[in-house]
Amino acid sequence: MNSVVLIGRLTRDPETRYTSGTQMAVCTFTIAIDRVTRQGEEKKTDFPRITVFGKQAENCERFLKKGRLVGVQGRLQTGSYTNKDGATVYTTDVVADRVEFLEWGDRQSQGSDSYQASAPQYQSQPRMEQAPRYSEPQEAPAKDDFVPDGFTTIEEDIPF
Asked: Is residue 112 assigned to a domain?
């Protein structure tokens, strides 16, 4: 099984290029993910490179910016190449099947990454609301009240 789910912040703006043959968009970006450490240890961070293809890559280019929080679901892919010094460089990328934009530029983070739409501010006097009064529960509706017209209730045991 090769499945990865990550949540992190972009370390820089995404870069998009297009393939020569099919003109498919390929977007790459790196996210910062804090690693769990023991109490008293220095905080550690990983920076996996994410690769996205197609329409989703175009959306990443259009809507993502450095510092935005994203969720990524995909798979690990390893590769290698020879650099200009002749040394083999091994790579590990996350090929994303799905990228969730968890933070937008027009929203402000509130506490633990929860968002609150800005409501209009009114300068009226606060109004005292009365709590609803407790009332005795009414009798439960009859069992046949929930059966749509044309259906009949079967009172037999299920054989499994």
From this structure: no
Residue corresponding to tokens 């820089």: 12
pTM of the complete model: 0.62
CB neighbour class for 7 (10 Å; exposed up to 12, middle 13-18, buried from 19): middle
- The CATH number for 85's domain is 2.40.50.140
Contacts of 10 (CB under 8 A, 6+ apart): 29, 30, 31, 32, 64, 65, 66, 67, 68, 70
Rounded Cα distance, 49 and 66, in Å: 14
Residues 92-105: tens digit of each pLDDT? 999 999 999 998 76
Assigned domain for 149 exists:
no
85-141 pLDDT per residue, tens: 999 999 999 999 999 999 876 554 443 343 333 333 333 344 444 445 545 555 555
Residue 144 lies in a domain: no
Domain containing residue 70: 4-101
